[in-house]
Amino acid sequence: MIYGETVKNIGVGLYGDFKDAGKNLGKKGTSTDITMYNYKQGDDAVFFVEPTKYPEKITPLLYTINMTDYALVFIDEIKPELAETLLLLDMMGVDKGSFVVGEYVDIEQLKAIISNTSMKNFEIRDKDYIKIREDMITLPQEIAGKPDLSFTKIPIDNFFTVRSVGTVILGRVKKGIVKIHDNLRVYPMEHNVMVKSIQVNDKNYDEAPTFSRVGLALKGIKSEELERGMILSNGDLGVSDELTLNMKWNPYVKKELGVGEGYQVAIGLQVVSCKVIEKEKDKITLKLIKPVVYELGEEKAVLIDGSAKIRIIGVSELI
Q: N or C terminus: which one in the chain shows less Cβ crowding within 10 Å?
């Protein structure tokens, strides 16, 4: 059985005061530092991603942005803690979404805050979970982008071992189609696997198209060998432990970066420690403690300092 190409699969990120949002919007799925909630209507599906361990850690916020097509920013009141979320959404260029506001939020103040950001055209809506859920399932699939069938690309966001099945990964088909018996490389490793079975929304299929959220049983690898952010692909992706970036700096960071300083760099769902080995104005070169996988023109690199008061240092396109 083939999962229909006309079926919708939309990813929605939950931000801000998201505490009770997920359980009111969908059925709870996997939960680690991010939590998945799923809502189905016929064969159409929406998956909601909540950055559960944020603001304690910055990485769940980055994962959520990279996994979703549409942002729901819940605001019960405008407070300083919201600033980091809005800043990162803006620096990552998130321009599709809505603000879900409580009754005491000053709408004019909110509009002023976002007037020069990527979120300036966000819809402002009331906290009506039933209506929000129905509106999300009716979003057009085009909001996720135009399907690219040039090769298969599936970032891994979760993985585990299932008795009698073996290694299972969860991820979303970002490009191409995935089929049973496909042979794919696990980037950034030089390791090939075969797809034994495919599930979408708890049903078994022989293949699944772009934008499907899939569970894949893999032959040829143990779950202990995997990490979040690895990519299954039959394309020619870049792999390197050294990156040169043209940074767009966070305007609220006052200190100058210095050669020899250690930070973390996030690319897609990968977060890797790194050291600045060269710097000239906005151009920096980073040495990473292990290789990362990337596709030029597709992902952004985010430089972070998890221990600092202002954790987002800057963002760069990968070109």
A: C
